[in-house]
């Protein structure tokens, strides 16, 4: 009987750990607040419009990679949370978003996203800013930014 209770308890603990508080959980993920205006510059600098469309933005001089570019923003996108938005930029192959673009070959032969990996060229500040720029274009819930006041000595 005691053994059974013990096993039950362990199972419960494991179940709770699975509820997003494990070491792999995104809980506690927090970036500093980005600068939207700078984010727009970053968006242009890295020529995101070569593969994407964004309402209100157009760069006719850019060579287009896809006949049917992937729209950014809006509500139909697969990106629903702040974490997904960040992930889709720094780890584009994590989840692929064929959506209505089922016919567009957005992955290469190895199943990797055709999105350019900017991790070795984009600074962290640029990444934070471009996310700040794109976030309002998605209807995603903003993250709770660090409340620095809590560290101030009264
Ligand atoms: C060479 C083409 C290419 C370039 C350049 C590119 N992307 Fe992408 N991006 C893709 C493809 C393909 C997808 C869809 C497949 C996927 O999720 O990886 C995508 C997906 C995304 C998504 C998720 C789309 C959604 O709403 O579900 C975001 C956000 C994004 N890209 C942001 C950017 C930003 C910001 C830049 C510029 C810094 C950029 N991309 C540059 C090809 C590109």
TrEMBL record:
InterPro entries: Cyt_c-like_dom, Cyt_c-like_dom_sf. Keywords: Heme, Iron, Metal-binding, Signal. This is Cytochrome C. Residues 1-22 form the signal peptide. It comes from the Bacteria. Residues 34-138 form the Cytochrome c domain. The keyword Oxidoreductase does not apply. The keyword Metal-binding applies.
